[in-house]
Amino acid sequence: MDDMPFEQYCKAIDDETEFLSHEHTLNHFKELWTSNILLPPANAQDEKGMLDLAHQKVEQAVDNWQPPQIPEEKMKALEKLLTKARTELCG
């Protein structure tokens, strides 16, 4: 799935509009409907089956989660930014 450019998010927020009328949404909305969660297999026809499937997928995602690999220079920049923010906000 292609993410909407950050600038479009900012513009929509600044303009206090929504995302449904954006060209990006029009071009990509069908991708949502190919989700294996929203269109579960035939063995999950009822509500309980769908909930069980969703629960199983959440557990798989948690079990397989790996922290992102963030380069050391980015971590240092983030730590510096957080330190500055804490100083400015908390005194």
List strands and helices in order, with pairings.
Layout: H1 6-14, H2 23-32, H3 47-64, H4 72-90
Features:
91 residues; single chain
Taken in chain order, the helices and strands follow as HHHH
Mass-distribution shape: extended
Share of helix, binned: 55-70%
Which class do the helix and strand fractions yield? Answer: mainly alpha
Helices, by number, come to: 4
Mean pLDDT: 80
Task: Please summarize the sheet with the most strands.
Answer: none
Q: List low-confidence stretches.
A: none
Percent strand: under 5%
The strand count comes to 0
Distance between the termini: 42 Å
Radius of gyration: 20 Å
Task: Please sum up the structure shown.
By secondary structure, the protein is mostly helical. The protein has helices at 6-14, 23-32, 47-64, 72-90.
Description:
There is one protein chain. This protein has 91 residues and is an all-alpha fold. 62% of the residues lie in helices and 0% in strands. It has 4 helices and no strands. The protein has helices at 6-14, 23-32, 47-64, 72-90. The radius of gyration is 20 Å and the shape is extended. The model has no long low-confidence stretch (mean pLDDT 80).
